[in-house]
Each structure stands twice: as structure tokens, then as C-alpha cells.
Amino acid sequence: MRKGSCRGICGAYRVKKPHGATRYGSGQGRCQICDVWIDHRGCHVKDGSQAAKDTIGWFCNCCNYRVRQKPRNKIYKEKLNSYKQSIM
């Protein structure tokens, strides 16, 4: 796959926000190129195989760009860590 812009196939993998959980905490990722929240079904890993929920390093099936699986903001990083601690 070559890198490029959104081709529109990511719409089939769009997911809704879970109730009572964070998006990253529930296994969703964000593709910045397609501007969409997707889960592992809309992603692949570097070797081209289908991504699983617990794999790291997702790439969007639509645009082949890296999908963000962790928040960038310090506040949301802390919220994610506290959410993970509460479910353990």
C-alpha cells in the first residue's frame, strides 16, 4: 500500500463513542488523515496483516497512515492511565 490521502473506505469502519469509557481505553484509535475514529477492524499492522485489538502500531486501511492509539495531551494521558488502573 502506498501512502496518500483519504479514499473514503474508512467510513465503513467508523465507530461511535463508548458510554462510560474513554475512546483510547476501549481500543479505538484516531486517524488524523481521514479524521475518523476507528477500531482494529479498520487497521493493519506494518507487515500488512489485520490488526488485533491488543496489537501496537496500527495503520489505517484507507490512507495507510499511522493511527494514534494514545492521547497527546497530558490531561487525557492521566485520564487514560487512571481508567486503566480502575479496570485492573
Keywords:
88 residues, two-stranded antiparallel sheet, two-stranded antiparallel ribbon, alpha+beta, globular
* Count of structural domains: 1
Mean pLDDT score, rounded?
A: 91
Low-confidence regions = none
Main beta sheet = 2 strands, antiparallel
What fraction of residues sit in β-strands? 5-15%
Nearest-angstrom radius of gyration? 13 Å
User: How many individual helices?
Assistant: 1
Q: How would you sum up the global shape?
A: globular
Widest beta sheet: strand line-up: 1-2
Distance between the termini: 38 Å
Order of helices and strands: EEEEH
Number of strands: 4
The helix fraction, in percent, is 10-25%
Determine the structural class based on helices, strands and strand pairing.
alpha+beta
Describe this entry's structure for a reader.
The protein has 88 residues and is an alpha+beta fold. The protein has one domain. The chain is 16% helix and 11% strand. The chain has one helix spanning 74-87; strands at residues 29-31, 36-38, 43-44, 59-60. It has a two-stranded antiparallel sheet with strand order 1-2. A hairpin with a 4-residue loop joins strand 1 (29-31) and strand 2.
Question: How would you summarize the topology of this molecule?
Answer:
Blueprint: E1 29-31, E2 36-38, E3 43-44, E4 59-60, H1 74-87
Antiparallel strand pairs: 1-2, 3-4
Task: Offer a quick outline of the entry.
This protein is α+β, with helices and mostly antiparallel strands and 88 residues long.
